[in-house]
Amino acid sequence: MCYSDLNYGNLSEMAVNYIGGIFKHARTVAAFTNPTTNSYKRLIPGFEAPSILTYSSQNRSASCRIPYGAGEKATRIEMRFPDSTACPYLAFAVMMMAGLVGIKNQDIPVGPMDEHLFELSLDEIREKGSRQMPHTLRGSLEALIRDNDFLKPVFTDLFI
């Protein structure tokens, strides 16, 4: 898939790769953006927070929303899965690290998906190739143990 197929919502190639990096490491990122057991009660498909890892400018059920902007300079992304219990400094740092790795590796996220994602069945989500956020704190902490190399330039092993 080439970038010309992905020109969507005024996103640059770098922005698409940034989103791809966050989605690739989303299960690890969740350990910082969703740090409590109650954080995962809202990550159930069809509930409050979007748990399907895709992006869209058309609906609010995607994990990454691209709000309408009045031009290229007004384009931005909105990650919708972080919880209000997260430390914003850690959450932004971890998302930045994952996004930078995505830019470096030219990760391409699944999407865009403009249909209402809360209405899709689990089989339809898998068929489209989309992944989901972890459903428990334990799942995100296990992912943090397995996948933390992208954090090493900033976070120490002791901190992780």
Polypeptide structure, described:
The chain has helices at 13-24, 26-33, 88-105, 122-127, 137-146, and strands at 55-56, 64-65, 78-79. The chain has a 3-stranded mixed sheet, with no helix packed on it. The protein is mainly α and 160 residues long.
Please give the number of β-strands. 3
The helix/strand class is mainly alpha
Which strand order spans the largest sheet, edge to edge or round the barrel?
A: 1-2-3
Tell me the β content: under 5%
Query: How big is the Rg?
Result: 15 Å
Task: Describe the main β-sheet briefly.
Answer: 3 strands, mixed
How far is the first residue's CA from the last residue's CA?
35 Å
Count the helices. How many? 5
Instruction: Specify the overall morphology.
Output: globular
- Overall pLDDT score: 82
Helix proportion of residues, in percent? Answer: 25-40%
The SSE order reads HHEEEHHH
Low-confidence stretches: 1-5
Characteristics:
globular, mainly alpha, 3-stranded mixed β-sheet, 160 residues, 4% strand, 5 helices
Task: Draw up the topology in text.
Elements: H1 13-24, H2 26-33, E1 55-56, E2 64-65, E3 78-79, H3 88-105, H4 122-127, H5 137-146
Parallel strand pairs: 1-2
Antiparallel strand pairs: 2-3
Helix pairs in contact: 1-3, 2-3, 2-5
Brief write-up:
The protein has 5 helices and 3 strands. With 160 residues, the protein is mostly helical.
